Amino acid sequence: MLLKDKSAVITGAGSGVGAASALRFAEEGAHVVCADIDAGRAEETVRRVEAVGGTAVAVACDVARESEVAAAIELAADRFGRVDIVFNNVGIPTPRLGSALEDHTAEDFAALVAVNLGGVFYGCKHAVLRFKRQGGGGVILNTGSVAGLVAWGGSVYGATKGAVHQLTRAVAIEGAPFDIRANALCPAGMPFTGFMAAGGMGEDPQTVARAAASTAANHPLGRAITARDCAEAAVFLVSDRAVNITGVLFPVDGGYVAK
Ligand SMILES: NC(=O)c1ccc[n+]([C@@H]2O[C@H](COP(=O)([O-])OP(=O)(O)OC[C@H]3O[C@@H](n4cnc5c(N)ncnc54)[C@H](O)[C@@H]3O)[C@@H](O)[C@H]2O)c1
C-alpha cells in the first residue's frame, strides 16, 4: 500500500496510461478523482477501480479549460479531505500521425498547445495553489514523452512535450521549498492505448500488432511499452519512496533514448 489514504487526481483517466494509473493508485490505497473529457470513459474507470475494492469518483473535465481543471482538483479536496497527488496525464497526438511540420494547420498547432501544454500548466498551477493552501507539500506528475527528448513522434507534438518537460523542472525548483515535488513520465510509443488510434491509426488488431512490432524493434529491450509499464513508474514517482526525486524526466522507453 504505497499510496495508502493519499488523495489523487488523474487527468485522462478514461483510457490508456490514466486508466491504468487510476487502477494501480487505487490498488496501492489511494482515493482517486478520474478526470476525462469523456465522462463515460471516466465512469468506466471508476467502475473498474470499485471492482477491485478501491475508491474513485469520475468528473468530466476538458484540461484546455482552466476552470474545469481547478474544479477537478477541488473535487478531490471536497471528497477526500485534501489533495496529495496531481497527475497531469492528458496529451493528444498529431492529428494525422506522421504529418510533417509543414502539414500542420494553425488549428492543429493551437489544439496541441492548448491541450498538451495548457492542460499541464493549469494542472500544475492549481495543484501548487492547493498544496500551498493546505500545507504539507504535495506531488505533481506530468506525462511528457520521448518525443520531447529526441526528434521522434511529431514536430509540434514533440515541442509541446519538450515544453512540458521544462515546465516540470521549473515547478520542481519553485516547489521544493514547499516540499512540492514535480516529475515527468516520458513514455515511448504505446500502440495499445487509444492514443495512436486517435491520431488516425485506427483500431484494426493487425495494424495495432504491426505498430507494436515496429515500436518494439526500436527499443533495446525489444518490447512495446504498455500503459501498465507507465502506471508502475507513476506509482513509484508519486509515492514516498521517491521523496528525494524531483525535476526528473523519467523515460519509460525500453532504453530507446539511451541508444
Ligand atoms: N501512446 C503513445 O504512443 C504515447 C507515447 C508517449 C507519450 N504519450 C502520452 O501519454 C499520455 C497518455 O496517453 P495514452 O496513450 O494513455 O492515450 P489515450 O488516448 O489512451 O488516453 C488519453 C485520454 O485523455 C482523454 N482526453 C483527451 N483530450 C482531453 C482533454 N482535452 N481533456 C481531458 N481529457 C482528454 C481521452 O478521452 C482519453 O481518455 C499523453 O500525454 C500522451 O501524449 C503517449
Automatic annotation (TrEMBL):
It holds the Pfam family adh_short_C2. InterPro entries: NAD(P)-bd_dom_sf, SDR_fam. One of its GO terms (molecular function) is oxidoreductase activity. It comes from the Bacteria. Keywords: Oxidoreductase. Signal peptide: none annotated. The keyword Oxidoreductase applies. PANTHER family: 5-KETO-D-GLUCONATE 5-REDUCTASE, ALCOHOL DEHYDROGENASE, PUTATIVE (AFU_ORTHOLOGUE AFUA_3G03445)-RELATED. Belongs to the short-chain dehydrogenases/reductases (SDR) family. This is SDR family oxidoreductase. It comes from Nocardia bovistercoris.
